[in-house]
């Protein structure tokens, strides 16, 4: 008898307004994405098919700033993680409040 398989579908709500659309955490564009954010980890894995690493979190930052992030991670007693391939740099963007379109905006 052939085993049954199931397909799961997962949808995520967008990040709360005023937070980063990548990690759902309030930070500025020159700071790393929140590696410990469940939102970041799940969104990243769904999009790229692998776990996010510390190197991915800071890949969008200026190159000269990244060693400071690595130092902070290691000083906190955490193991620095890197992907087998090039880190993926996802730029910071702030989530905007949801705004429903009015009928006049949907024409043309
Ligand atoms: Zn972020």
Automatic annotation (TrEMBL):
Compositional bias ranges of the Basic and acidic residues kind: 97-108
Residue numbers spanned by region Disordered: 75-108
Protein name as catalogued: Uncharacterized protein
């Amino acid at each position: 008898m052939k085993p049954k398989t199931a397909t799961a579908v997962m949808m995520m709500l967008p990040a709360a307004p005023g937070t980063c659309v990548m990690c759902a955490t309030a930070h500025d564009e020159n700071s790393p994405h929140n590696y410990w954010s469940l939102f970041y980890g799940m969104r990243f894995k769904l999009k790229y098919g692998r776990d996010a690493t510390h190197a991915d979190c800071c890949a969008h930052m200026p190159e000269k700033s990244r060693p400071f992030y690595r130092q902070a991670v290691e000083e906190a007693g955490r193991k620095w993680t890197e992907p087998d391939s090039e880190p993926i740099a996802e730029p910071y963007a702030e989530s905007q409040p949801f705004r429903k379109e009015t009928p006049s905006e949907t024409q043309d």
